[in-house]
Design goal:
Order of helices and strands: HHHHHHHHHH
Helix content: 55-70%
Largest sheet: none
Radius of gyration: 17 Å
Number of helices: 10
Shape: elongated
């Protein structure tokens, strides 16, 4: 479980426009008694965030994982978080899956491209869905291309447009799908 003092140390890693981070990765490792930041990110993701179903811990785990790098072992808990409605960090999850570029994440990314959580209902530009499409675009394999075709047929306007661009970036013409 991430305590308030843990959150403070983690949040000190965050940079804001026009300022440097207040903390260092070394301070985070020292605070948690860890020597491997990637392993720490995975531990926070699995242990606190997913196991305890704690939205704040999801955000803290994503900050640590982003700063120290994602290990392939993060894939499973990230995929679990895609369909969880108890947190508000789905865009961060999309970014993390986009970084990992694993064909195993295709179904989860397609879900996030189509789904609009209640807390994002106001977003007419469908930013999370478009980010999920861009993550699919960077994901190798025929499954990702198939997902892009599916989104081209069923997604919202912005998601369809992103899917069309994603297919074109793969050298595929939209007319090939008809």
């Amino acid at each position: 479980m991430v305590k308030p003092e843990d959150q403070r140390v983690i949040l000190d890693l965050v940079t804001y426009p026009g300022s440097a981070p207040r903390g260092t990765p070394e301070e985070v490792l020292r605070h948690f008694g860890a020597d491997d930041g990637r392993a720490l990110g995975l531990e926070l993701l699995r242990g606190g965030a997913v196991a305890e179903r704690d939205g704040d811990q999801v955000e803290m785990a994503l900050i640590v994982a982003d700063r120290f790098g994602l290990s392939p072992a993060c894939l499973e808990p990230l995929i679990t978080l895609c369909s969880a409605d108890w947190h508000h960090a789905h865009e961060g999850v999309v970014s993390a899956l986009g970084t990992l570029r694993s064909p195993a994440s295709v179904r989860a990314l397609q879900h996030l491209a189509d789904w609009v959580p209640d807390y994002l209902d106001y977003d007419d530009s469908r930013a999370m869905g478009v980010k999920a499409v861009w993550a699919l675009r960077r994901t190798p394999g025929p499954e990702a291309e198939e997902a892009l075709w599916g989104l081209l047929a069923s997604g919202s306007g912005d998601v369809r447009e992103a899917a069309a661009k994603g297919l074109r970036s793969r050298g595929v013409s939209e007319s090939e799908g008809t």
